[in-house]
Amino acid sequence: MSKTPKPKREPLYSERDRINLRWLWTQYLRKKAPWLIVVLLMILVQGFVYQQFLSMTESGLRVIFESGSVADLVTVCIVVFVLFAVRGLMSYLVPRITIWVSNDAIYQMRRDLIAHMMSLDLAYFERTKSGEIIQRLVGQTQALGVFVGQAVANAVRDAVTVIIVSGYLIWKNPILFTTAVVVLPFIIWIMNYVSDRVKIAQGEAETQMGEYMNGIEETVNGMRTVKIASQEGVETDRLMQGTGAIRDLMNRVQVTQALVMPSIDLSSAFVYVLVIGGGGYMVLSPNFDMDGAGIITFLLGMVMVFDPARLLALFFGSLPSNLVVLERIRRLYDEVPSITDKPGALTEFDTGGDIVLEDVHFSYSPDHPLFNGLDMTFKGGQVSAIVGSTGSGKTTILSLLTRLYDTKGGRITIGGQPIDQLKVGALRGAYSVVAQDIVIFNNSIWENIRYVNPGATDAQVWQAAEDAEIADLVRARGNAPVGPKGAQLSGGQKQRIAIARAFLTDAPILLLDEATSALDQATEARIKSALDRLTKGKTTIVVAHRLSSVADADRIFVLEAGQLVEEGRHEDLIRQNRLYAQLYQAQKQGYDKT
Ligand SMILES: Nc1ncnc2c1ncn2[C@@H]1O[C@H](COP(=O)(O)OP(=O)(O)OP(=O)(O)O)[C@@H](O)[C@H]1O
Ligand SMILES: [Mg+2]
User: Fold this and answer.
1) pLDDT value of position 3
2) Cβ distance 307 to 268 under 8 Å?
3) Whether the CB of 417 sits within 6 Å of ligand 1
4) What pLDDT score does 4 carry?
5) Are 140 and 109 in contact (CB under 8 A)?
6) Kind plus residue range of the DSSP H or E element containing 465
């Protein structure tokens, strides 16, 4: 787990926040503008109702204090009731609309995030923790939706109430109002202090939450290794450390936020005392036009301002944490895919042509160069084999051919056509691949095979299963899912599913990366004869450690630390008596011994 970074001061409302908010508005809210205007109107009605209530109360009090007509009093009561009924109706309608708007916005935001995530290069997923991605797609979008749908709407309502009611109070008695708001600077200072600290802590909390989710994911997926190595204790500690960090950070956020309420309560106490004292003096003194009804109404007005003002303060307290969440979501868009279709990319090309690597440069990271000017030609329609020690770059060559990664220099062509001029989908569609690390989904074996070609007929799927020697298992297991990542299958069974997928894809170019390494020799021999039928007339590239399985290839390439050190037919390489011949001899002796 990474160490908690040192808190650093961030501006309360940065340029980046402004851009993010504008993005949120134009992407997800602007099209709902008519509805938002309706909401705003209803909120204005609510504010207006409060102002009317105050003025009615004042008249009602005067009726009681002065004229004493019961009929007038009844009228006042009815009007007050109607006013509050209207406010109640608005209180129902406003959330109905805003919740609908915000849930739809979250839905669309998730849809866009998913689409964007799918478009990203494989490299992104190899360096990003999955917990971080999950956190974005699940928790952060949800939090943002609640913020937009409830918090902002309520804040607007409260702000409108504060403005309208204060306006009314200022109009009634500016001197008394001014006395009342002397505490405002204090409240603003508190809010700034809180926002600042919340923003820092929230950022750390989001990071920790991602780490935590990632830890869970890793532990759950790696449970086999965890258990065999008896590392349950270590993993428990790791997760507990994460939860502990989250607890501390959330404490920090919420304890700071908890400062808001009491400081506001204290300031309201000040205000009430000032109003009662000052107002009382005004009533007693003949210099002011103020009576008992006026002062009571004014006090009521202050109460009505203070409650929403307090909620507004809370809202501003939570604003920074939501800006942080928004920023985290936005950051996914800073990632842009680099492997995309160029304008005018082609879909048609000679899939049977030679596959040529010319002066290919590539490295996963700048400090570890792998290929430095690699030249190779895989003849169209023939079987080529790549052999070499582990880590020499065999799988990487296949990744470059399929454009899971792009070369950093030089070029790769198929039938003379540079592959980066082709549509990515068309290029990848030209390959049947049995990858070294096989991905099995938690579904039936049948569905796992069909995954690569959903349009295939049942007969085709069965044929592929027969060819890959896995049909018996398909029959035996039926529709039973095979567990997460195929956990309920043996290594060889997974490999045969992958081979069946290659049979079912039946694309013109075949890439086999250690495709039969986990099979016993009898099964391998049976699959090999089926594979020979499959590879007939197709360009095939086989990667294998077991040299005997590639001895009959048309051409063998020997790779060593990213360099092509030998190439030729098996007999030629044996005759040259260099690296290949030595490896072959070593393996042969190994077999002879057993
Ligand atoms: N996704 C990756 N990110 C960073 N480095 C990588 C990545 N994949 C492979 N490498 C590094 O690149 C080098 C070549 O890896 P590659 O997988 O191509 O080897 P290989 O010849 O297929 O080995 P093996 O026989 O073990 O499958 C290795 O040093 C490896 O550590
Ligand atoms: Mg490999």
Assistant:
1) 45
2) no
3) no
4) 46
5) no
6) helix 458-467
